[in-house]
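Researcher: Here's the sequence for the chain we discussed earlier.
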Amino acid sequence: MPLSSTSIVSNDKMNIFTQNEQLNIISSEEIKSVTIFDVLGKNIYSKENINENSFTVSQFLNKNQALIVKIVLSNGQTVEKKVIF
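Model: Thanks. This is the structure I predict for it:
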């Protein structure tokens, strides 16, 4: 994926987008944790105790892959989104 490409997944409470080889998450609710899985279900990234409304992940070795992003919000809600990175 070229550096200028952007892929966006959004709803009224959350935006997930890739830009400049980073995965960005912006939420109206505070983000408690983020876990990222590949399509085979392998956990490839996990971060706890974020406690922010935005979060950026830039630590991926493989590009051009489908990912499942699981986000746990401070209100206990879990959001799962599929993105292409």
